[in-house]
TrEMBL record, chain A:
Protein name (Swiss-Prot/TrEMBL): Carbohydrate ABC transporter permease
Subcellular location: Cell membrane
Keywords: Cell membrane, Membrane, Transmembrane, Transmembrane helix, Transport
N-terminal signal peptide: none
Natural source organism: Bradyrhizobium agreste
Transmembrane segments: 30-51, 89-114, 120-143, 164-188, 208-229, 267-288
Sequence similarity: Belongs to the binding-protein-dependent transport system permease family.
Automatic annotation (TrEMBL), chain B:
One Pfam match: OB_MalK
This protein's UniProt keywords: ATP-binding, Nucleotide-binding, Transport
Organism whose genome encodes this protein: Bradyrhizobium agreste
Gene: ugpC
Protein name: Sn-glycerol-3-phosphate ABC transporter ATP-binding protein UgpC
Domain (ABC transporter): residue spans on this chain: 4-234
Amino acid sequence: MSTFAIDKAGPSRKVKYGSMSRDRAWALRWSYFFLVLFAIFFLTPPIYMLITSLKSSAEISAATNPWWVFHPTLSNYVELLTSNQFLRFFWNSSIVSIVVVIITMLISIPAAFALARMKFWGSATLATGVFLTYLIPDSLLFIPLFKMLGVVQDYTGIMLLNRWYVLLFIYPTLTVPFCTWIMIGYFASIPKELDEAALIDGASWLQTLTRIFIPVALPGLIAATIFAFTVSWAQFLYPLVFTTSVDQLVLPVGITTTLIKGDVFNWGQIMTGALLGAAPPLIIYAFLMDYYIAGLTAGATKG
Amino acid sequence: MADVALRKVVKRYDDVEAVRGIDLDIADHEFIVLVGPSGCGKSTTLRMIAGLEDISDGDIMIGGDIVNDVPPKDRDIAMVFQNYALYPHMTVAENMSFGLRLKHYPKAEIKARVTEAARLLDITDLIDRKPKQLSGGQRQRVAMGRAIVRNPKVFLFDEPLSNLDAKLRVQMRIEIKKVHQKVRTTTVYVTHDQVEAMTLADRVVVMNKGCIEQIGTPNELYHKPATRFVAGFIGSPAMNFIPCRLEDVGGTLQLRLTDRIAFPLPPARAARYNALPRTEKLLLGIRPEHLTESHAHLAPGVETFDTVLDVTEPMGMETLVYFGLDGTPVCGRVDPNAGAKDGAPMRLAMDLNNMHLLNEETGVVL
């Protein structure tokens, strides 16, 4: 857009074919084209969910246009939000995700700091190792994990299987490696002189971490937090395996197991539940994006 | 405030010796500059004094105490880094007071010290700004302020002016000198810029390949360099080194530069060099300012010769002339009105009272 404005502003200047501004204009057009294409592709399912969630069961099964609501109703929302079961799932999901985020941060931040800054024997190998553990799919891990927790339960007598809090031990196996990896990157981007200056100023390692590194790497911490929350909130396989009683279920498993009865799909409520379930991460993204300030390190050093 | 001493300090990285057993005594209140080309070990030496690098061998003493295993925070030092290393999320005042706050100084004293340092460095107006709102020179002042408020035993500067533009560098150089005159803290300053070293230092330490080449006042280094490295490193344009040999002609000692050019040595120099074997391969070290245009009345010891100039560089207050002596490029400094022109012949005068004679192989000044 701006390129045309520039061309008009300078009528005496001819734009040659293949010039920078012409190339840029085409690059912009192509980017818009693909962005619109992707937007349509990715927004269609949620829009379909929204449309379906506003329909009654009768209208869903009727052979009308599936992309239009003829008799909008909020009955699905009312039913779900007044059902103790759904609220229970929601509560379980919230408490699990929030506690997992806290546990993840408490482990990942010091781990990343140590791996990024304290050069000790094997630290580089350990950093790579942390990342490699993330590459092992959870579908491979859940059986050994189930066995392990079963043994621990038998041995200690503490109920772990089929309890929501078992997820607090299991989710960090997914979130900690990745968050540690992200934050190693962020911490490594902080100039070495900054912690040397802090060291000379009299800060201990812990003070350097809490008073210099965490504030400076805040955008990275927020990215890691968002990631940990999203992973915990959307996790399906582990809760499906480790929790079975209805009062112990989290949202994704709860919706699919209680709203699908045999071959009867309660589509209206499934869509409503999914939509409501997608809301918290969306809200968190929206709020934290404001704090997602790039270039916080600007001014620390030359450049 | 305290003196600093290095005893046979060695730094090894795997199989590379970055610092090869250096000895250095820095007196209380002294301003010492470590200077040398990149990779000479000057920054490593500074970082070892700071405690940011372990020493492989030897001892470092601050105020008479061996600090080899003392962590940086307990050495009571302050350091100014090349890239400032300001805490980006803190204001100028917070940056400067960080060290004091960690040590739980009373608030009133912190405020007083920060105010005083800000006044000294002329950054009182910037006290509430964040580093990103400051220019390079202002950031460097804040970094110095952070060092000053701590009132440490020793200041360490690691190429603090390298990131500034030429004009600002000159200005900040004077600032640093002024600050040192006021606070009188023992200072170790690292730079690769010999002009900075000459202008700031009480004593300059010239380093090369992990060793100390020479320690001395700026004047000593300039007029009495010990080695070819020091002679060539200090001074700009650099000293000329011309292959030469000694010969006896009719009872006087002569210095032969080329087949055409040979000068009788002044009596003082002749007495000094007379014992040297005539066969030894020597280098004449002569600074460009001792190669000037010829006058009608030449002082004793000043000899003239004719040459053809290759290139001239008018600098305003002087003109640099470049020519060759048997293939050795030589630089001289002549008066801008002396009529030096590219490609033109010129009669030049060499002041042999200020000459140096070096052993070509060892590089030692004789």
